[in-house]
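thought: user wants a sequence for this fold. calling inverse folding tool.
action: design(structure=
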């Protein structure tokens, strides 16, 4: 396996709500919901999803939890939880503060307010509407 990552897919309970959070609340560019023509069935996953191409080419994909479970051949409960965090690095402490304020206005939950860390970073955490954990980080100088 080559050391790179191309797509991060987040399982979501309500695709429209999550799309609004990331697109309207945080300002990420997207074509909106795609794949609606692929309806799916009890056993086959539907194609309805939303994708955001981030700087550097990484794709952030939102996919209904039930459909991701079908696609991966898992029970729906196995697509729940947030045993990891996604990191977003910014240049200044003010950007950390500003982004977390934006998250609050968009309906996200601040789980750890911004604070200086003993190992030389300034960061805070938020959870999106489905509980996916993000850390906003500034490497202090």
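)
observation: tool returned 141 residues.
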């Amino acid at each position: 396996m080559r050391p790179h990552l191309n797509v991060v897919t987040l399982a979501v309970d309500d695709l429209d709500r999550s799309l609004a959070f990331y697109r309207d609340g945080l300002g990420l560019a997207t074509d909106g919901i795609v794949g609606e023509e692929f309806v799916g069935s009890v056993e086959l996953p539907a194609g309805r999803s939303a994708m955001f191409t981030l700087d550097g080419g990484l794709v952030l994909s939102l996919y209904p939890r039930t459909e991701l479970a079908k696609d991966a051949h898992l029970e729906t409960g196995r697509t729940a939880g947030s045993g990891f965090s996604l990191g977003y690095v910014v240049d200044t402490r003010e950007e950390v503060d500003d982004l977390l304020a934006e998250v609050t206005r968009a309906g996200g939950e601040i789980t750890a307010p911004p604070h200086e860390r003993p190992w030389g970073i300034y960061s805070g955490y938020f959870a999106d509407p489905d509980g996916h954990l993000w850390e906003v980080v500034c490497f202090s100088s």
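thought: summarizing for user.
answer: Here is the designed sequence. Strands lie at 7-12, 33-34, 49-53, 59-64, 85-90, 109-116, 121-127, 133-139.
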